Amino acid sequence: MKYLIGATALALLILGPLAFVSNRRANRISSAPTATWLRWYRFHWVLAASLGIAALLFHYSTFGHDGQPWRVYGFPFPAAAFDSRGADYAGLVTLPFTLFNLVIWTSLPDVALFVWRRAIKNRSETLRA
User: Fold this and answer.
1) Alpha-carbon torsion angle 127, 15, 56, 87, nearest 10
2) How many other C-beta atoms can be found within 10 angstroms of the C-beta atom of residue 61?
């Protein structure tokens, strides 16, 4: 399961910025997607900002090898962890992993809009043929 989450995280880390750039270009051309898509594109920033804040606050609990409870901050990249005594396990990867999580979560609306736009394009090409 860890490998599936890691592979998905890496894919989203690459696909998110690509979808962002592609959606910006599609928004600027005269043959842009449907009016509904454009409306969602104009207001997707609100959702992206909300997801960015949620990415910074997201944490979950788990148990270590010795049965001790841990609180882990960050998903899908674990940025920091705290044990039951309050000792922190943050290090050199805390900031990069936090930024990776921020990029992934804020680009999820762009990925959804990208998939939607591609589906619209494929459907229109199928209807023309």
Assistant:
1) 140
2) 8
Of the candidates 29, 6, 13, 1, the one whose C-alpha atom is nearest the C-alpha of residue 105 is: 13
Question: Per residue in 31-71, pLDDT tens?
Answer: 667 888 889 998 999 999 999 999 999 999 988 888 889 99
Q: What is the 3-state secondary structure (H, E, C) of 4-58?
A: HHHHHHHHHHHHHHHHHHHHHHHHHCCCCCCHHHHHHHHHHHHHHHHHHHHHHHC
Q: State pLDDT tens for residues 83-127.
A: 888 788 888 999 999 999 999 999 999 999 999 998 988 877 776
Max CA-CA distance within the chain? 65
End-to-end CA distance of the chain: 42
